[in-house]
Amino acid sequence: MKRFIRAKSRIIGMMMMPIFFLLGLGLGLGSLINLGTGGSYFNFIVPGIIGMSLLFTSIFTGSAVLWDRQFGFLKEILVTPNSRSSIVIGRVLGGGTTAVLQSILVVIIALIIGFQIQITAYTALAIVFMILIAATFIGLGLTLGSMINDFQGFQLVTSFFTMPLFFLSNSIFPITSLPSSIQFIMYLNPLTYGVDGLRNALLGTGTLSIWVDLLGITISAVIMVSLAVFAFRKTEVG
User: How far apart are CA 109 and CA 177, in angstroms?
Assistant: First the structure.
């Protein structure tokens, strides 16, 4: 948390893309889009931008493994009595905390611009969905970071994952407006359940039940964190 607070340039840099999407898509392109449900496209896209912020921030947490390996810090960690599983859980908790804090900043900015939250009994679950989305993609990032040994390769592979995960979810398009073949792919995407859960929590409406969303993103988080633990146990120090 000290490093996160001190790295003001990092915070500003990670906030620029969500702000760009909020202004460019939410306000700009949103004025030309009719959802057909009577709702505002800006309100519709804000949970998707929150999901995007969580996705990008979380998956790049895996680069920490490469830095630790390169500078010898990983070797110092592994000689301690702590298990490799606890190290992964620590990474997930630390990275998840910073990712959720950045997402809360996105919500605050969206509220200033004009986002309208519908207070319901499930509104508090928005934080739970943020945590689970972060855990899912931090797990993916740590898995990739444990398997890849160079930064260039890591950046290429993560870029290969992040853009399809974002665009093949319901972050910027209503899932029901797309062909059935694309819908099938989107339902396999963990981010779809996370973003739909955020819409249910913040707007009181979503494509699926909020409990289906919660189950889907919880299963995804458990699977990805388990994969990260498995991959980190197999990682080489040097």
Answer: 28
In tens, the pLDDT along 19-42 reads: 777 777 766 665 556 665 556 788
Tokens of 15: 């906030």
Q: Which two tokens stand for residue 186?
A: 């989107």
Q: Is the pLDDT of residue 152 over 70?
A: yes
SS (H, E, C) the chain: CHHHHHCHHHHHHHHHHHHHHHHHHHHHHHHHCCCCCCCCHHHHHHHHHHHHHHHHHHHHHHHHHHHHHHCCHHHHHHCCCCCHHHHHHHHHHHHHHHHHHHHHHHHHHHHHHCCCCCCCCCCCHHHHHHHHHHHHHHHHHHHHHHHCCCHHHHHHHHHHHHHHHHHCCCCCCCHHHCCHHHHHHHHCCHHHHHHHHHHHHHHCCCCCCHHHHHHHHHHHHHHHHHHHHHHHHHCCCC
